[in-house]
Amino acid sequence: ALALVCLVYTGQAQQSFVTNQAATTVIGQPNFATNNSMPNAATIVGASGCSVGPDGRLYVAQQTGRRVSVWNATPTVNGTSADLVVGKPNPTSTQSGVSAALTSTINGMGLSPDGQKLFVCDAANNRVLVWNTIPTTSGVPADVVIGQPNFTTGTTGVSATTMNSPRSATVAPDGRLIISDAGNDRVLIYNQVPTSNGAAADVVIGQFNLTSRTSGNTANQFNGPWGVCVSPDGKLLVADELNDRVMVWNSIPTT
Asked: pLDDT for 221-240, tens place per residue?
């Protein structure tokens, strides 16, 4: 299943919508009736997440395209080409791998509140890649990897420093990084964005400790958590995919 998580930074006038309203623009295809799955600057292959930064740049994660496409402004014309890609050397590349510049299946992505850091959930490599500054050209390598000790390993694990198919990442206004570690049925919280490879998580929710992995449908268990976000008033929301629900914490847990 695909989950599309959209994080849009507000600042424009509120718009009114009606039920069954038609979209005004399509991104990733030349028109609303086309479904082209050949990777290039104008196509999106397996959209799995998107964000708009405070500077207006649009980011789209692609699960089967194995990349993140970036537009310097949200397109207003159908089929507008992306300005660059992350995770591939160029927009037409289908090369997959495990390095600082190559990604595999991407299930989601996120931005820091100031829009300066990019987080990419490279699920098939069981890691989250961090760019400390937003790339301005294709193929720029990541600065930090979370979930692995280095950029060339991609093994699964269930510990404070390992992951299993991460799917979404967000940063709270206070700087805490939150990652859904779906394959381990948990959400990991880092008290600050890691600055070195293989950093340990500080808090886990969905499990009683950082080395257990049990799914369930209670108030403190998940079954394949996917999207995560923080509301303006500080609530943590987690899309618990296989339990068909969204879980709400009135504040981000500290233990």
From this structure: 999 999 999 999 999 999 99
